[in-house]
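Weekly modeling sync, notes
Attendees: S.R. (lead), two postdocs, one rotation student

Agenda item 3: backlog of single-chain predictions. S.R. asked that every request posted to the team notebook include the full sequence so nobody has to chase files. The rotation student volunteered to paste the first one in as an example of the format we agreed on. Action items at the bottom.

Example entry:
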Amino acid sequence: MAQKNTLKSNPNDTYTNDIKSVKKSKSKSKNQSSKFILFLKNDRVHQAFGVFLLAFAVFLFISFISYLFYWQTDDTLIDNSAQSILFDATIQVENWMGKFGSLFAYLFIKKGFGIMSFSFLSLFFLIGLNLTFDYKPFSLLKTSMYATFFIIWGSTLLGFLFLNSIYTILGGAFGVQMSVWLNSIIGQIGTVILLLATFLIFGIIEFNLSFKGMLKAKKTKSEIPITETEFEEELEEDTLLEEEQEEDDDEVDDKMLQFEVRKIETKPEEKPQEVTFEDKSNRNQELTTETKTPPKESPVDDDFEIIIPEKEETIKADAIDGITHYTIDTEYDPRLELSSYQFPTIDLMIEYPNEQGDTNEKKEELHANKDKIIETLKNYSIQIDKISATVGPTVTLYEIVPAPGVRISKIKNLEDDIALSLAALGIRIIAPIPGKGTIGIEVPNSKPEIVPMRSILSSEKFVNSKFDLPIGLGKTISNETFVYDLAKMPHLLMAGATGQGKSVGLNAIIASLLYKKHPAELKFVMVDPKKVELTLFSKIERHYLAKLPDSEEAIITDTKKVVRTVNSLCIEMDNRYDLLKDAQCRNIKEYNYKFINRKLNPENGHRYLPYIVLIVDEFADLIMTAGKEVEMPIARLAQLARAIGIHLIIATQRPSVNIITGTIKANFPARIAFRVTSKIDSRTILDSSGAEQLIGRGDMLLSTGNDLIRLQCAFVDTPEIDNITEFIGSQRAFSSALLLPEVPDEETDSISEFDPDDRDSLFVEAARMLVQTQQGSTSLLQRKLRLGYNRAGRIIDQMEALGIVGPFEGSKAREVKIKTEMELNEFLKDNNLV
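Predicted structure, as returned to the notebook:
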């Protein structure tokens, strides 16, 4: 018997497969187009094309010059055999650039615009200079406009002048045809008038050419005396004109202000919606729901509705060319040296799929947890009036309003019992919630969501932030993007057990700063004892990193070099404070504002000061190996470096009291705690418990000095960091990383005996200056004598060898042993130095 059950193809499956294939092809084409756009934006491609344009301009220039000598001979050959001239070896041309040069000159000059074709060379050469050397001797837009006008006008003029002569090539085919056409419609006299009028109009528009007063003799004010009445009338007219102009400017400013206000008002920040349960009767426990939106039908319960907060709106990648950046429009531009630098684009970040899960499942989970919380509290005779839920990416916050007479301590003591009833990890009770009359119970979601770094960087809060050093840490428990200013922290301490998200948090902070700050405005000093966490950032060494002058690698992995680097930062801090003192400024913002507005003279040692961020990935290892040698300069930087733009980010996986000492904690008001193993570690880092109840994988608590904020750290994967560093590293950079001040090494940099023959020519003058000021500072010699650091350091070493100044004392200035100028004169005579 034949088998009747046969397999049949489902047409719906075929349709689904077709849709999937179309989506795949679209995604592939989108990826290819984005790669092509990145290829076109690559600085190397720009430089290569610029070199090609420069070479092409030189090639055309030589071709055109030689064509003017041999045009009759070469034109005859091209007119007779234009198609085979390139491939016929028997044909020889006179052009200095060969057959290609002869053909290009023939097309541009004879068949084109005549000798005005030389204007094309200026365009090619100018664009080539801009792309290759980032140099603009003239405005590209104005040069293009002038070249276009003179090509058309000049070719027509020369074609008109040499219309019936043998030298028609001076105007080219275009000039001849234009002159013939103009002669036919307006005649020769009309053509002359038109050419003259267009030239004068161009001069009036572009060069402000004026003919007023040429036909009318105008007596000057020195020839005709002005009466007092006429003088008052002229003064009134000038005053009225100035007032009208000020009113127009005020109207424009008002319109711009109104536009900005409307722009802000049209994009209000969405507040999370709350799920509310009420328990008005203790007998029957009837539940009603308070919501901020009209009620919807729910399959879980007719009287119970759960509304999950919507995702925060992000700005589309198409509308973001990198990230919009806040700049100060002033005279001096610190970005001028790298004016072609392009900020990373949002397409470099991975867009992770939204794994929210089924909404009905979430509602069922919230409903079940609400019932278990109410039941557990009821078992201990604790009655509540209302309960509401706020859903976050990884944790849901249940807010409870207890009935009158219920003690908060009774609910707080039931933390383990509530965790047992919910069968959840990491229950945390906040009793009470600061600023609210409620008690919070944080319960982890069964299916936590990833917070991609892309969503943080493309959020409106981050894109439009005006912070000095904005960092996007992640999202709050109410699903709002959290952006903070590192300059106001001003230093950050991070701690947590292994594998809980410290390295990802550091990468998120660094990525935020790279998307917002120009290389001229920010520098990193990176310390990585693990040798593997921060190595990816070595690609941006000449853009964003700072190092010691004798260091080969910018990312410090040797513990011995860490001590020298931190001491070097202390010297840089003291040098910056000296600059602020001379400029009479209190902080780096005031100083840079004065420098940008040309109020500080660079010849006196003043310079633009970029922000410096010191990042230490494993602080415990440094304390174990270096101890006080590292702790004391870091504590000094934490105490003083805020005003001059040096900020510290220190991470450790061992938050014990011998690692994070009281000196360190006192100067790090901002602290981040990932999951730790005990309450003792939590109190060490946060001065309160709670970090031991986190669920890991980026779940963290942030303390800014007032209260604790629970955040889900943004996730940054290694390929994303690789994309960012590759994008930045492929662009034109500074000649080297920022060089920090030199710090002598006690073992290798010992002072040799003084050699009178090797004495510096400015030795005596420098000695007198140090004795007068009683400051043995290398930076003082740099500023007053306008010396480089190395030469000033050698002079200080020679003075130490003679005993004029004392030995090196770290970040402090050297002691000047000679107190008066008279003693110095006698000392110099005794040593035959005068």
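Discussion: group reviewed the output briefly. The CA atoms of residues 16 and 45 lie 42 Å apart.
Action items: rotation student to repeat for the remaining queue; S.R. to check formatting next week.
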